[in-house]
TrEMBL record:
GO biological process terms, semicolon-separated: single strand break repair
Organism: Rubus argutus (Southern blackberry)
SMART domains reported in the protein's UniProt record: A1pp
Region Disordered, annotated ranges: 479-545
The protein's name in its UniProt record: Transcription factor bHLH140
Biased amino acid composition, Basic and acidic residues: 497-520
Length: 754
DNA sequence: GTTCTAGAAC
DNA sequence: GTTCTAGAAC
């Protein structure tokens, strides 16, 4: 255990551990759990109870901690400690005689709030809203600790399993033990969809790892020092988090928990599992031949990049087969090797730095199913799912999809993974889709293609990141053999942040045109039985994919075609559009401007030729908003489209921002108007005018993000509580909404709310 | 899209 | 016991 500083005397050093977290983040529970099983003498200094069970002062906490440390006790500082200034005096109690640690309980805001509410539930009727307000207010001041503040060790916990493992670490710490120094776990800079709240945080963090200094970190069994700044990684980070990210020059090195020095290493490395040999039951001998052959082909064409075959267990037969065959072929063991470990924790647990990992995906590119796929999707977090969906909806055997990982993904922050490449290999398992029934001539061909697609995908990342001259990776230019209906689409799936949009389009086109009947049927079955939704995939006569709508989803379409029949709801009819009150308004004023064109079902169908129509819709919407504002100048309107509407026929929402309506009942109602899922009409106009189409944020997961106030961005645990809050909140709207005319207000209001 | 309702969360 | 969510049915 004694990795960092060998114990000099017989006695262990006391440590002072600052717990950092909002009310309800579990600080006290953390202390209690460690203290109940630890053999080290601990004292918990809790500001809430320090005065004979009642709340005391910071000074009392400092005194109490100082005397405990003097007596050789280790100390937990159990108070929120969210701001650096609040922590500084405790840190000073430490060094050099006492080791100072921080444990950051950076759990989901919603969880903290709900726990706080529970805790204060007996203290009268104010509980819920008040606890939420307190937690929100405190978190707005959050400053994550840095090693440079004076800590020997910082542990970041983002979920309960992180907390559990930290509890384990501290519980197991005997009186004489010390823990390795460094920063552990993942810092949470705030999820992608919550960028709005970042302006409330005093600082934002560039994800760990991306800016290591060349500081040497000593270790008991490895002391390789590779500490150069990796600019390509940093670029990737800044590209995907362009908003609000400030670069910092004093970031601390991050080291893995097993004590190997894993500071940044700029060798591009692809870690990949053996494809098709687990659940897909592909013959191991044949598979290992193919792996080695493909590796031999690519390894010399990838510059200094490395390929690593990963398996969870030493007993893996495919690993030993590949090792032997690679040795026979004299493959450079610096460029290709095998590795035993969890592919989602290569950096944090294995000390192996891999900027790209491959996933043995399923054809739906969905989480689950066990094995590597489940592990990678779970480790990648919802952001991986969203990012994957942006690239492709499905995958064919033999193909690969390169997914740039948003910097908010735990895999990016914790493991330094910048890309996940999903691949689908051939299947020899009768229980799985596309069973090849032991047809190994077909199977081998597909497996070759799978690895080709995978390594090409990796090569494209290497090339983009390193900006190597085109010719240095000739393999990219070599054409794949054309086996079955769907293999050559792989090169089109290569993608980087910078060219994502165009590549996405390419991919979809190729995927659409290649969709075989077999897959279609299955897709329909799946969406039918698994989601219960009626919007199945359909194939139009031109072969492109379209959406079919349930009967209930046709209402708007029918009105658009025959508005005269629905004079009860229709406000205005013109040649191009119909204006009506939303039948279930989600705010005081909620109109729909419906296009009358046949064939324009939704925003996804909109192209440049519809630009004039969009402008008309916007103008008509604006006219009505202004009409309402004339009658009630306190209203604020927003005009926009749902990325994936439930109702057929393109329609623009004109909705007042009070969201004061009995029809607003669930998360989806709220999030469909208050996340990136809602596309402001002004932005759509700009995008269609410049790109010929609108950006769609149509991921379902946006519908289940935490409920944030549309003004102050505070989080609320339930819809009723959110509604209580928005009824009162008078904060001004977030800056993004105040810009570019996204909000429409009465002239006197001039975009400034009191 | 809504309604209904089981059962989870409080 | 009551509130709230989320999934199925429409």
């Amino acid at each position: 255990m004694d990795v960092d500083e060998p114990a000099k005397g017989k006695e262990g050093k006391p440590i002072i551990v600052l717990l950092i977290g909002a009310p309800g983040s579990g600080k006290s529970t953390f202390c209690e759990q460690v203290m109940s099983s630890s053999t080290r003498p601990w004292v918990r200094v809790c500001q809430d109870t320090i005065k004979n069970g009642k709340a005391g002062t910071k000074a009392q906490c400092i005194d109490s901690a100082r005397s405990a440390l003097k007596n050789g006790k280790s100390v937990f500082i159990d108070r929120c400690n969210l701001e650096k200034e609040q922590r500084d005096e405790f840190v000073k109690l430490g060094r050099p005689q006492v080791d100072v640690h921080a444990v950051v309980l950076d759990l989901p805001v919603k969880l903290c709030i709900s726990r706080s509410v529970k805790r204060t539930g007996h203290e009268g009727n104010l509980q819920g809203g008040r606890a939420a307000a307190v937690v929100n207010r405190m978190l707005q001041k959050k400053e994550l600790p840095k090693l440079s503040e004076g800590y020997g060790r910082i542990t970041f916990c983002q979920n309960e399993s992180d907390v559990e493992s930290a509890i384990g670490t501290y519980s197991g710490l005997g009186p004489l033990d010390t823990l390795p120094h460094g920063s552990f776990g993942q810092k949470n800079p705030g999820a992608k969809v919550q960028l709005g709240i970042m302006k409330f945080l005093k600082k934002t963090d560039v994800p760990a790892n991306t800016e290591s200094t060349s500081k040497r970190v000593q270790d008991s069994d490895a002391s390789q020092v590779i500490g150069k700044r990796d600019t390509s990684l940093k670029e990737a980070c800044l590209v995907s988090e362009s908003a609000n990210m400030e670069s910092k020059k004093d970031e601390e090195p991050v080291i893995g928990s097993v004590g190997i020095d894993v500071s940044l290493n700029d060798t591009p490395t692809l870690a990949f599992p053996s494809i098709s040999t687990a659940d897909f039951q592909f013959d191991l001998e044949k598979a290992s031949d193919i792996i080695v052959e493909k590796v031999a082909e690519f390894v010399n064409k990838l510059g200094n990049a490395r390929l690593v075959l990963v398996d969870l267990t030493h007993k893996s037969k495919v690993l030993s087969l590949v090792r032997n065959k690679a040795a026979q072929k004299n493959i450079d063991s610096n460029r290709f090797f095998t590795f035993v470990g969890d592919i989602t924790k290569l950096h944090s647990e294995g000390g192996l730095r891999c900027n790209v990992i491959a996933n043995a995906a399923n054809w739906r590119l969905k989480p689950g199913g066990g094995g590597v796929n489940a592990a990678i999707f779970s480790a990648g977090g919802p952001t991986l799912e969203v990012a994957t969906k942006e690239q492709a909806k499905s995958l064919y055997p033999g193909n690969a999809v390169v997914v740039p990982l948003p910097s908010t993904s735990p895999l990016f922050c914790r493991e330094g993974v910048t890309h996940v490449i999903h691949v689908l290999g051939p299947n020899m398992n009768p229980q799985r889709p596309n069973y090849l029934d032991n047809d190994y001539s077909k199977g081998c061909k597909i497996l070759y293609e799978t690895y080709t697609s995978l390594f090409e995908g990796f090569a494209s990342i290497v090339r983009t990141q390193k900006k190597l001259p085109e010719g240095s990776i000739e393999i990219l230019q070599t054409k794949l053999s054309e086996p079955q209906d769907c293999s050559e689409s792989a090169p089109k799936t290569h993608s980087t942040n910078s060219d994502k949009k165009s590549k996405r389009e390419d991919l979809h086109e190729s995927e659409r045109s290649k969709r075989s009947k077999e897959y279609q049927d299955e897709a329909e079955n799946v969406s039918d039985s698994n989601t219960g939704k009626v919007n199945l995939s359909n194939i139009k006569s031109d072969g492109s994919k379209t959406k079919t709508w349930g009967s209930w989803a046709q209402v708007l379409y029918n009105i658009a075609m025959h508005p005269e029949k629905r004079k009860d709801v229709v406000l205005e009819i013109s040649e191009d559009v119909v204006i009506l009150h939303d039948i279930y308004p989600k705010a005081q004023k909620h109109l729909l401007v419906v296009a009358r064109d046949h064939g324009l079902d939704c925003l996804a169908d909109v192209r440049k030729e519809n630009l004039e129509l969009l402008r008309t819709m916007h103008a008509v919407g604006l006219k009505w908003a202004e009409k309402f504002l004339h009658d009630d100048s306190t209203l604020v309107f927003r005009l926009g489209y749902h990325s994936a509407p439930s109702m057929r026929q393109l329609h623009l929402h004109v909705i007042s921002q009070d969201f004061d309506s009995a029809h607003l009942k669930n998360k989806k109602h709220w999030n469909s108007f208050n996340t990136a899922f809602f596309r402001d009409s002004v932005d759509v106009l700009e995008e269609v005018s410049s790109d010929g189409k609108a950006i769609l944020n149509d991921d379902e997961s946006l519908m289940s993000v935490e409920l944030r106030c549309n003004r102050c961005r505070s989080v609320h645990p339930t819809i009723p509580k959110l509604k209580l809050h928005i009824g009162r909140c008078r904060a001004s709207f977030p800056n993004t909404l105040l810009q570019n005319g996204r909000l429409v207000t009465a002239p006197s209001n001039a975009n400034t709310d009191p």
